Amino acid sequence: MIYVRKKAVFVIAEQVFRDEEYLVPKNLLEKAGIKVETASTTMKEAVGKLGARVQPDLLLSQINVEKYDALIFVGGGGAEQYFNDRTAHSLANSFLKAGKVLAAICIAPVILARADLLKGKQATVYIDGAEELKRAGSIYTGNPVQTDGWIVTANGPEAAEGFGNEVVRLLTRSINQQKNKPPLTRG
């Protein structure tokens, strides 16, 4: 098998992102040898709900789908800033069309729902977003972590480890398995 270093980009809110939904998956990806970068709408230091401080590497508008293998939206109250963000929606759509991993945790799956990417897909979300996913045509499962093709969703901070492990699983599949062949649905 040919080894190709994978690269993922996390999208966090400038304020009130959920610390463990960022830190736990990020650490799991890095331990698996996946290069991680962080994007936001500003280059100012982002502050999590529990006080974590993160310096973004790039702006949301600077994300180039060709340079990354996964786009990961982090939850927390601040994630609402991306619910109707056209750039976030366009990026999510581009990653999915390119057959790359698209992931969202906690309330962030609402971003994917509003981008019209969850219609007919099994997904989960923090309970406050369940009705929104259903209205968008998603098959809401309520599972802690749900995978449907290249889309991974999770329902909150308690699912951060399982979420991170699932993203790692998808990113570390062999090159031949990944080409134009979506993975199985898992919940």
Lay out the secondary structure:
Layout lengths: L6 E5 L3 E3 L1 H13 L3 E6 L5 E3 L4 E2 L3 E2 L10 E4 L12 H12 L3 E5 L3 H6 L7 E2 L6 H6 L3 E2 L4 E4 L2 E4 L5 H12 L3 H4 L9
Parallel strand pairs: 1-3, 1-7, 2-4, 3-6, 7-8, 8-12, 9-10
Antiparallel strand pairs: 4-5, 11-12
Helix pairs in contact: 1-5
Could you please describe the fold and organization of this structure?
There is one protein chain. This protein is of the alpha/beta class. The chain has helices at 19-31, 86-97, 109-114, 130-135, 160-171, 175-178, and strands spanning 7-11, 15-17, 35-40, 46-48, 53-54, 58-59, 70-73, 101-105, 122-123, 139-140, 145-148, 151-154. The chain is built from 6 helices and 12 strands. β7 (70-73), α2 (86-97) and β8 form a beta-alpha-beta unit. Helices cover 28% and strands 22% of the residues. The strands form 3 sheets. The protein has a 7-stranded mixed beta sheet. A 3-stranded mixed beta sheet has the order 2-4-5. The chain has a single domain (7-178), classed as Rossmann fold, CATH 3.40.50.
